[in-house]
């Protein structure tokens, strides 16, 4: 029987590729949520006929309401961040795929889990900012977190043998290295937004592409892996794999290593999260080994790319340390994309926030949002 899908973040890179998968698998789209891209959202509504739609941006929501006015069978429209959380709660879908960017996705992840929905999670910030809240909600309500990030999907796939998974000793988290791999600080000082958005392998949204250039994305993924797979951060090693063919690896107690390989196409991990535990033919191309000349490995340069070092510090501190690092990064990336700070300022600011407090101890959802606010304010006062 075809699944019903609620898709949060439908107009972004992950969202549009998720709809490719839904189209290929014949899934019903129960609800869509987006931020502000009204034109694309209208096309998605026309094709998939969702029962509900939420739009975070108030002006965009007004535009959509006007353009849907009088349209027969138009979906019910929900407004703002609260509307997206409301969609995540609704009974009806078999799975909620959260592809919202940033901490804005945390509330929806919690709402979905607490209301009995499995969550296909592309919003890594849910676990980075509120890791214990999210994992406790999943455990309490018997719901599943199904990883969508290519690296965490690879780890998840390598651990499907439950007997071997009990002997997991190490995770090898692969990174492309981004567009500036091999460069030193003096070479990075003048890099612009346009330079940083030229990713060598992946076609992604602006924020995650900048995170890849700074290696912040790998730091966030390391934190996410701690929560998803239960290993301490010192047992997770970042390995640069420039071709983005090996998506991550796991090591067991006998030092045997399993790897998951595939073309750099997000539709593979998206589909696995939606079809798990089954596999079906999909829309991503197969890996052609006759065209693959080499697979290389390198060490991540934490001295140059300080965001990765800052994330390691943050998860070691525990508590709200990862939340502070994420909030500072989101604000710094926004400023960089607006040409208000330099590329190296991103790492400097993230590390400064992490070093500014101990951050340990338990926390509530309100604490998460307050920490995020303070981290953003810290950045604005230190540029």
UniProtKB/TrEMBL annotation:
The keyword Secreted does not apply. This is 1-deoxy-D-xylulose 5-phosphate reductoisomerase. Mn(2+) binds at residues 149, 151, 221. Residues 261-377 form the DXP reductoisomerase C-terminal domain. Its EC number is 1.1.1.267. Residues 5-131 form the 1-deoxy-D-xylulose 5-phosphate reductoisomerase N-terminal domain. NADPH binds at residues 11-14, 37, 123, 125, 205. The keyword Secreted does not apply. 1-deoxy-D-xylulose 5-phosphate binds at residues 124, 150-151, 176, 199, 212, 217-218, 221. It comes from Allofournierella massiliensis. It catalyses: 2-C-methyl-D-erythritol 4-phosphate + NADP(+) = 1-deoxy-D-xylulose 5-phosphate + NADPH + H(+). It comes from the Bacteria. Catalyzes the NADPH-dependent rearrangement and reduction of 1-deoxy-D-xylulose-5-phosphate (DXP) to 2-C-methyl-D-erythritol 4-phosphate (MEP).
């Amino acid at each position: 029987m075809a699944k019903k899908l609620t898709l949060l973040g439908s107009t972004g890179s992950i969202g549009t590729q998720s709809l490719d998968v839904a189209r290929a698998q014949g899934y019903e789209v129960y609800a869509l949520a987006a931020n502000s891209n009204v034109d694309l959202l209208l096309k998605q509504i026309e094709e998939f006929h969702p029962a509900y739609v939420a739009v975070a941006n108030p002006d965009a929501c007004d535009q959509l309401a006007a353009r849907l006015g009088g349209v027969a069978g138009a979906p019910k429209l929900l407004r703002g961040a609260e509307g997206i959380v409301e969609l995540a709660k609704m009974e009806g879908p078999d799975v909620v795929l959260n592809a919202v960017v940033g901490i804005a996705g945390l509330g929806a992840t919690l709402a979905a889990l607490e209301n009995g929905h499995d969550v296909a999670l592309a919003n890594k910030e849910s676990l980075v900012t509120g890791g214990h809240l999210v994992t406790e909600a999943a455990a309490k309500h018997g719901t599943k977190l199904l990883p969508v990030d290519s690296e965490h999907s690879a780890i998840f796939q390598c651990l499907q043998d439950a007997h071997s998974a009990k002997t997991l000793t190490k995770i090898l988290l692969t990174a492309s290295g981004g567009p500036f791999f091999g460069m030193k600080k003096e070479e990075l000082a003048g890099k612009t937004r346009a330079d940083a958005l030229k990713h060598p392998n992946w076609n992604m949204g602006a924020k995650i592409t900048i995170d890849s250039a700074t290696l912040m994305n790998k730091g966030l993924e390391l934190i996410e892996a701690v929560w998803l797979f239960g290993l301490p951060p010192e047992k997770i090693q970042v390995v640069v794999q420039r071709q983005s063919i090996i998506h991550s690896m796991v090591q067991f107690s006998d030092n045997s290593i399993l790897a998951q390989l595939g073309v750099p196409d997000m539709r593979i991990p998206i589909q696995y999260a939606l079809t798990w535990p089954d596999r079906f033919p999909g829309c991503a191309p197969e890996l052609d080994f006759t065209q693959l000349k080499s697979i290389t490995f390198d060490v991540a340069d934490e001295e140059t790319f300080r965001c990765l070092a800052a994330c390691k510090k943050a998860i070691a501190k525990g508590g709200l340390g990862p939340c502070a690092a994420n909030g500072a990064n989101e604000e710094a990336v926004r400023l960089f994309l607006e040409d208000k700070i330099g590329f190296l300022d991103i790492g400097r600011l993230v590390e400064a926030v992490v070093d500014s407090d101990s951050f340990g101890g338990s926390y509530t959802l309100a604490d998460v949002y307050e920490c995020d606010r303070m981290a953003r304010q810290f950045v604005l006062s230190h540029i």
